[in-house]
Amino acid sequence: MTTRAESILGLLTGGLIVSCQAYPGEPMRDPNTMAQIARAAVLGGAVCVRLQGIADIRAAADLTVPIVGLVKDGGSGVFITPTLEHARAVADAGASIVAIDGTRRPRPDGLTLAQTVAGLRTTHPDVLVMADCGSLDDAIAAEQAGADILGTTLSGYTGERNKTSGPDLDLIRSIAARCVQPVVAEGRIHTPADAEAARRAGAHAVCVGTAITHPTTITSWFVEALATTSGRVS
């Protein structure tokens, strides 16, 4: 019999996860707006969405695809679903997959990642855990801690790896070669070609956020491109 975890991971195979997030103070920073964007992404073929915030997750509860849920608390160090209490709240809100900081850095509640995963499973045994990692060592440790999915989300942000201009393909390859659990490529995937490259590098699935769901940044890319050609006519 296929388990719920196997069913979800099978659904994600080769698919696109769309991260629907807006920063505090932005016009789109509204749970209903994020839920509408998530629904639009599903219409476009996304097999899963990633949502930040309890209200956002609840607002998208009617989606027919799995939700990767997280909460951000703080602005430095471990701030992606940083504690067991946060993780349980995300699961209670309806997330099928709880995204947790998967680095080896100290966590605010003093628990290890393994203790956090185990603690979540005592109350939510059917929920999967996605570890947001910043390096191969993070991914190895996260797998040993019991994470179901290994993300490259924090590559370039923890000081262990340089920040690449596009997806960290070397890290994707390294994790896929070393670890058993599936890899979700996330971070600086700006084009369909980037997504294809990440998949070829060994990603089980690809998560795209900014390039699909953040119009302020997308607009700035076009504005900057036009600025470089100002006054020149071909």
Automatic annotation (TrEMBL):
Reaction it catalyzes: an N-acyl-D-glucosamine 6-phosphate = an N-acyl-D-mannosamine 6-phosphate
EC number(s) given by UniProt: 5.1.3.9
Name of protein: Putative N-acetylmannosamine-6-phosphate 2-epimerase
Function according to Swiss-Prot or TrEMBL: Converts N-acetylmannosamine-6-phosphate (ManNAc-6-P) to N-acetylglucosamine-6-phosphate (GlcNAc-6-P).
Entry's family note: Belongs to the NanE family.
Top-level enzyme category: isomerase
Keywords from the UniProt entry: Carbohydrate metabolism, Isomerase
Top-level taxon of the source organism: Bacteria
Example GO biological process: carbohydrate metabolic process
GO cellular component: cytosol
Pathway the protein acts in: Amino-sugar metabolism; N-acetylneuraminate degradation; D-fructose 6-phosphate from N-acetylneuraminate: step 3/5
GO molecular function, one term: N-acylglucosamine-6-phosphate 2-epimerase activity
Entries under InterPro entries matching the protein: Aldolase_TIM (IPR013785), NanE (IPR007260), RibuloseP-bd_barrel (IPR011060)
Protein source organism: Cryobacterium arcticum
